[in-house]
Amino acid sequence: MMEEKKDYKKIRLKCGLEIHQQLATQQKLFCGCSTTMTEKNPIMILTRKQHPVASELGEFDIAAQHEYLRNRNFYYQVFNNESCLVECDEEPPHMLNREALETALQVALLLNCSVPNEIHVMRKTIIDGSTTTSFQRTMVVGLNGFLRYKGEKIEIKHVSLEEDAAAIVKEDESSATFRLNRLGIPLIEVGTGIITDFAPEEVQDVAYQIGMIIRSTGKSKKGLGTIRQDVNVSVKGGERVEVKGVQELGILAKVISLEVERQLSLPKVAKEVRAALADGNTKFTRPLPGAARMYPETDVEPVAVDAEYLKKLEENLPESWEVRLKKIKKLKISDQLAEQIVKSDYVDLFEKIVKEKNVEASVVANTFTNTLKDLRREHMPVDNLNDEHFYKIFELLKKRTIAKEAIHPILKELAREPDEDVVTIVRNLGLEAITVTELKRIIQEVKGRNPDATKDKILGLVMSRVRGRIDAKIVVKEVK
Amino acid sequence: MYSQEIQSVLEKKKIRVGDRILVTTKKAEYEGFLMPKIELGDANCIVVKLGSGYNIGIKFDKNVSLKLIERGRAIKFKSADVKVAKDPKKLDVSILGCGGTIASRVEYTTGAVFPAFSPGDLLLSFPELKEIANISGRKLFDLLSEDMTTAHWQAIAHDVEKEVKAKAEGIVLMHGTDTLHYTSAALSFMLQNTPVPVVIVGAQRSSDRGSSDNLVNLVCATTAAVSDISEVTVCMHGTMNDDYCLLHQGTKVRKLHTSRRDAFQSVNVLPYARIFYAGRKIEHLRNDYKKRDGKMRVDDKVNPNVGLFYTHPGMKPQVIEVLAKVCDGIVIAGTGLGHIPSNPNNDAFAKSLVPSVKSIIDSGIPVVIAPQTVFGRINMNVYSAGRLLQQTGIIGNNCDWTPETAMVKLMWVLGHSKDMKKVREMMLANVAGEISSRTEVRGFV
């Protein structure tokens, strides 16, 4: 470990992070649509063209963009409750969502930023079709902040609030299809200064801390793709390469070290943008663009942030993740599990369930970390699970209707059939918990039917009847 | 405009919009370009564009100091220098700007949006146009479409005539969308027997964005301008998709939505054609249009002094009486088949407007009726309210004009005569397709 760190110092590893976190606000950033993204079937598909707008760009650039865009069709899937005329670029934006702005301002204050007195919404030009307008609405809410890490100040360049772009469904040479339900969901962007001389694992740690700070507002969205990172990587004497769209914080260190290896293996590094792949590797996408092309969004009034309001926000900031971690560690839970849960998307829900349902903290923490990780590994659509599902399950556990062994199979079924009732699933899977007395009766019955069987054989037969309904250790004890 | 306080400091320090400045507050320092103050927001906030491209507002008070770092360059656009050789196989189309920025250029340093009107600018923004026609272009005037007056309609009519005399083979008028259908109706009456297509086009999305409907609308309008549909028409998106535009008859079209691309739809009739962006294909929906021939006659006499109002439940007769004092003609957008409060049942609360209408008409001021439902035809024979109203001498029974077209027509007719008999005769004669004899089954959205 020491050896590795020294290496990164020697090659002068420099990283810059941009963390994007979706917010689970009641409404989208500039309209009244829901941010849930649960609708499956589009009600219609829009067909659109885009074209370049003449600017200080040279005539040649415009001609090239025309050539690229002229035979390209963009298709947009429209969802009934999750997209309206605003997402369709058929109506001007409504007023800025105050819930989202307040959350972004909290993050800015938690990261020690200065907040502008007046917030101006900008249009950032985008020509890949991922927004129906051909620009993304964005505003800076915090500047020149910092974050403390291992005794050093990590510079926070900006905290911005922007609308998320539409998610791409498919793409070929002449067209691209997008889902409009993600477009307009509030997105907080935190950009760091250059982080120098830290190892990839430490840069990942910084990203985790920023993620935890955003999550401490209680307004972040959960699940894969709700937090996305871009990371700039450069080594001594080389160009800066931007890796976009790292979908999981946990693979950031791997992305950085693989990118460092890639750069070190090349005689010359080109300045470019690369897309992150799920396995931590990256692929080339396009050369790095120049300064962002931004101009004012004149359809939205600038928002004044007066001193009194800011002071009130400052006095009521959510508790820091360090304080939270200390509290969780007191819940009769291993330090390792406590650290896992505080980094997880589910830390709010974990705390609520432990408090309200009064169930064993370690069981709840394990469910939100290891069980969900296992289910993801089994390719279960874990993002279908909502807070209500977990409340129901832990209520049944509390009432001893189910054993903790039943949690995994119930969640698996719920992930596949999220509209199904939890109690029905328990019944259909035969997962109602049994008492020790009932267990004893079953053991006697099995022994009676198989008088010549060995103890192991009996154990196997009994387990097949009671799996998930009672602690396996009790079964072993009772059979032996 | 910035506050007096800020302006005097800027003057003193000789700082101008576009200069790179340093703003120091008690808590922080910000460096960037000084931006112009937009209409919205606090006039006492200095707006600065940071290096990242973001604008922020910094409240100005005695603790804030400004320092000039670098003089900004003057921001001015030169018209683009796009030269295209004239193609003898293509028709000459003249594009005239009547306000509404259907084409523009963005200057990202300040975020300023400049309207673009020169042929070079148009061809730079819409290179597709040169595949359709030989393009020339100029700006007639620059104003918001809600500020249009009858004088502007007259000016446009004369400019169109000038272009046609100069051998333009098709005219495209770029126009703000809010009152576009008033202008299309007015030009339909004023430009009689036009030998070339006169196509009015606008954009529902601002031209600074790459998603603007301006491209598809302008390409389709230019396609219409080289067709043989020699009438005053409106060419706008047919649906929310960028697939085709509809070419509407100038007197039978209305803006029916505040913001959608397909806000303009034909009322009571089918559009003349669908014009597809891809392949520039024209699909005719009607064949009763005027072809390219004859000689244009401009008949631009109008009387702007006409009022238009909606009747509604509980309306006071005094409203129309007051209007009659200041107008030479009145259009009532009546309810249903063409009704106004008339109280044939002698209800204790209801008040009839019929006696007021009668005395206004008797005093020599024509009153015209049109449907506030927008779609459908006036028929004042069905209910007693309608029968009572007919007896006043109101004009418009069995007409299927929109309230706006009826109003524009009354202005035009009153420009020709004040004689009630003559006005009635001209109003009820079909001049530019504004009154149709049959209501199309498909003439509804």
Order of neighbouring strands in the sheet with most strands of chain A: 14-13-12-11-1-10-7-6-5-15
What is the CATH superfamily of the largest domain in chain B? Answer: L-asparaginase, N-terminal domain
Provide the number of structural domains of chain B: 3
Distance between the termini of chain B: 44 Å
Query: What composes the largest sheet of chain B?
Result: 8 strands, mixed
Helix content of chain B: 10-25%
Q: Give the CATH level 1 class of the largest domain in chain B.
A: Alpha Beta
* Order of the strands making up the biggest sheet of chain B: 9-6-10-12-13-14-17-18
DSSP, total strands of chain B = 22
What's the overall average pLDDT of chain B, rounded? Answer: 93
Total DSSP helices of chain B: 10
Mean pLDDT of chain A: 89
Helix/strand/pairing class of chain A, anyone?
alpha+beta
Number of helices of chain A: 16
N→C terminal distance of chain A: 47 Å
Question: Rg of chain B from C-alpha positions?
Answer: 26 Å
The secondary-structure class of chain B comes to alpha/beta
Regions of chain A with pLDDT < 50 over 5+ consecutive residues? Answer: none
Structural overview:
The complex is a heterodimer of chains A (480) and B (445). Chain A is of the alpha+beta class. Chain A has three domains: 2-304, no CATH class; 320-428, no CATH class; 436-479. Chain A has helices spanning 2-10, 59-70, 98-110, 200-215, 252-265, 307-315, 321-329, 335-343, 347-357, 361-377, 387-398, 407-416, 422-428, 436-449, 455-466, 472-479; strands at 14-22, 44-48, 73-78, 118-119, 122-125, 135-149, 152-163, 167-171, 175-179, 186-196, 227-234, 241-246, 272-276, 282-287, 294-296, 303-304. In chain A, helix 9 (347-357) crosses helix 10. The longest helix of chain A has 17 residues, at 361-377. Chain A is globular. Chain B has 445 residues and is of the alpha/beta class. Chain B has three domains: 4-70, Roll (SH3 type barrels), CATH 2.30.30; 92-298, L-asparaginase, N-terminal domain (Rossmann fold); 306-428, Rossmann fold (3-Layer(aba) Sandwich), CATH 3.40.50.40. Chain B is built from ten helices and 22 strands. An eight-stranded mixed beta sheet of chain B has the order 9-6-10-12-13-14-17-18, with helices on both faces. Chain B is globular and about 80 Å long. Classes of the chains: A alpha+beta (480), B alpha/beta (445). At the A-B interface, strand 2, helix 2, strand 4, strand 5 and strand 6 of A face strand 3, strand 4, strand 7 and helix 2 of B. Strand 4 of chain A pairs antiparallel with strand 4 (55-59) of chain B, so a sheet runs across the interface.
